[in-house]
Design goal:
The protein is an alpha+beta fold. About 55% of the residues lie in helices and about 15% in strands.
């Protein structure tokens, strides 16, 4: 829960956004989408470009700006620079123009404090002269940073009415976000002050609640309060990490913790959250039993991950933290729902607190990815969510104390009444006790039956939902008329096979098929005949492309497409000609008369290369198709 931002980056959007955008794969966005200018008097000229350093390279700023590496620079097409866990350094360049009065000072902010190392190299775009380098990052000593700030801030010296080019080298072992902001220095400090006030409130709430629950654990001797206190402490340390204040004030002289506090405190917060969930909601005796078993497995993983992150942090661990963190989130929601359905009054608080934090973290992620417009609320939504969660859970603990006191008082009153009744009517008391025991036994039996019934109903519903989801997934990739795959599925498969061909150096063939004079069939015989014609052609294509790796899809209108992995040009042309003959042999009788059918086919087959975009590869097949139609139809043409 505490590291849900880490989790959703591994899924994120997997889940909502799609994963990370690769440079050069989409049309360039306006530069302000990647690097935001905080004042109209300064603007970013051109685009923001990236160069990925190879594993065997050790490049200098002069080398990356040399003509020899000019073709390796690519415009970044995403809204915010998000490069997953990039192993090697990445170079970023952009040009800023200053149209402000001379008195204004500018800064460049990178408001993500988990980057290992950042180097900023200014370069005069006219003379090509380099200015002094500035360094910052988690692996850089505090006294070597250009400005003291929770994030990474660099003063910019841009001549009035002129431009300055900046070449930035970025390296990080964990989440690779680089949210850039050029801002007026005064406005930046004011914004930082506003954020510091919020952080003060956040850290104050977490600190006060930690001390309060530590005191409760000491006096009440209840394990739930102790575990909750540990959870509050780990959340506080996690928040200090992701806001940069921990590295700024607490552990700036501990290099190991500067680099690995993120993973360490993320694991610790997940572990303490899972333990608190276990003890506070009584999973040891909860039904169904698999809730306890799943929680035990999750606790064991986070304990293991915590130890590994402390003694041997590595990339495999970081990836598994993201996946298991996502699983832990779903398990918590699922378990809360099951316990709420069973009448667990405390599960309502826990489910509500968890949901608030998850929703707030999703809002922060959407802002970080550029999906939501960044503002004070979205940028700080996760911090606000932590405060709300802590308060809700504290209310739950207070309610538990009150409830337990009421139960004890009620028990004491009942005991006193029973004592009086024993003195007056001993025989009646014995009968009443026996009756009460019998009633309680029957009530427990009825409750167990109802719980088992509810569990069985839920399992049946989940199984039916799973079956429905499988059917829905099939329908989403199938053309309703022809029962072959649709265009969307064709695009997904083609992209995978295109990259597979480049990796394995095995040829890939694509055949575009167009029904000749299809409009004439519609016009003369009607649309029902046209639909039947499409179904017959689709059936013939499926019969010809019968390998398990082959794909038949409706490309659009009267066009179909074949994807033939591992097929060279000669075999692809042979396959296409068999398709042409099979279609020509279709005996299509409509209302007593035979309707002739033929197709034109365009073929492209080669070993793909990343130097050629996928769209150009398909365009070659399309051009071959048009040559087949222009030279008489009912024929196969191979792309030149």
């Amino acid at each position: 829960m505490a590291d849900l931002s880490f989790v959703l980056r591994a899924f994120a959007l997997v889940w909502l956004l799609g994963w990370f955008s690769a440079p050069g794969m989409a049309a360039p966005l306006p530069p302000a989408a990647v690097l935001t200018a905080g004042d109209r008097s300064v603007r970013v000229e051109g685009t923001v470009e990236l160069l990925y350093q190879a594993e065997s390279e050790a490049l200098s700023p002069q080398q990356v700006m040399s003509p020899a590496l000019a073709d390796r620079w690519a415009v970044y097409a995403g809204k915010k620079i998000n490069l997953s866990r990039q192993r090697q350094p990445v170079w970023i360049r952009f040009t800023v123009r200053n149209e402000a009065p001379p008195a204004k000072a500018w800064v460049l902010g990178i408001e993500w404090p988990l980057i290992d190392r950042v180097e900023l190299h200014p370069r005069d775009p006219v003379t090509g002269e380099w200015g002094p380098v500035q360094r910052s990052g988690a692996a850089v000593a505090a006294n070597s940073k250009p400005m003291k700030d929770p994030a990474f801030v660099f003063p910019l010296r841009i001549p009035e009415g002129g431009s300055m080019q900046y070449v930035m080298r970025v390296q990080s072992h964990s989440a690779f976000f680089v949210p850039l902001l050029v801002s007026d220095a005064t406005e930046f400090q004011q914004r930082r002050f506003d954020t510091a006030v919020l952080m003060g409130v956040l850290f104050g709430v977490l600190g006060v609640m930690f001390l309060y629950n530590a005191a409760l654990a000491l006096f009440v001797r209840e394990r739930s309060y102790a575990v909750y206190g540990v959870y509050l402490l780990t959340v506080l340390l996690y928040e200090l990490t992701i806001t940069g204040y921990g590295a700024m004030y607490l552990w700036s002289d501990v290099p190991w913790l500067m680099l690995h506090s993120y993973e360490l405190f993320a694991c610790a917060s997940f572990l303490s959250a899972s333990l608190f969930f276990r003890y506070f909601l009584g999973l040891r005796t909860a039904r169904p039993a698999h809730l306890r078993r799943i929680n035990t497995a999750i606790v064991a993983y986070w304990a293991f991950a915590l130890v590994v992150s402390a003694v041997w942090p590595n990339r495999a661990l970081s990836a598994s933290i993201a996946l298991v963190g996502l699983l832990s989130s779903f398990v918590c929601v699922y378990s809360s729902v099951v316990l709420i359905a069973q009448g667990n009054r405390y599960a309502r608080y826990f489910g509500a607190a968890w949901s608030v934090l998850v929703a707030a973290t999703v809002a922060s992620l959407l802002s970080l990815f550029g999906v939501l417009e960044g503002n004070w609320l979205t940028n700080n939504a996760q911090h606000i969510g932590f405060v709300a969660e802590v308060l809700l859970l504290s209310v739950a603990l207070a309610d538990r104390i009150k409830h337990e006191r009421e139960v004890r008082e009620a028990a004491q009153r009942e005991a006193l009444e029973l004592t009086k009744r024993v003195e007056v009517e001993r025989d009646q008391k014995i009968i009443a006790q026996a009756h009460a025991i019998e009633v309680q036994r029957k009530a427990n039996e009825d409750l167990e039956v109802r719980v088992l019934d509810r569990t069985a109903e839920l399992e049946r519903a989940m199984k039916n939902l799973e079956i429905a989801n499988v059917e829905l997934a099939k329908l989403s990739v199938t053309d309703a008329l022809t029962k072959v795959h649709n265009r969307r599925y064709f695009d997904e498969v083609l992209e995978k096979e295109y990259h597979r061909s480049e990796r394995t150096q095995v040829p890939l063939a694509v055949v575009l098929v167009d029904i000749d004079h299809f409009k004439r069939v519609n016009d003369t015989c009607g649309h029902l005949a046209g639909d039947e014609c499409l179904r017959l052609v689709a059936t013939a294509l499926r019969q010809m492309a019968a390998r398990s790796t082959d794909l038949v899809a409706r490309y659009g209108g009267e066009e179909f497409a074949l994807v033939l992995p591992g097929t060279d040009a000669a075999h692809a042309v042979e396959m296409a000609d068999r398709v042409r003959q099979a279609v020509e042999a279709i005996d299509f009788i409509y209302r007593g008369r035979r309707v002739p059918i033929s197709v034109s086919l365009g073929v492209v087959a080669k070993v793909t290369s990343l130097d050629q975009p996928l769209t150009d590869f398909v365009a070659e097949a399309d051009a071959a198709l048009y040559r087949a139609k222009d030279t008489g139809r009912n024929r196969v043409v191979l792309a030149a």
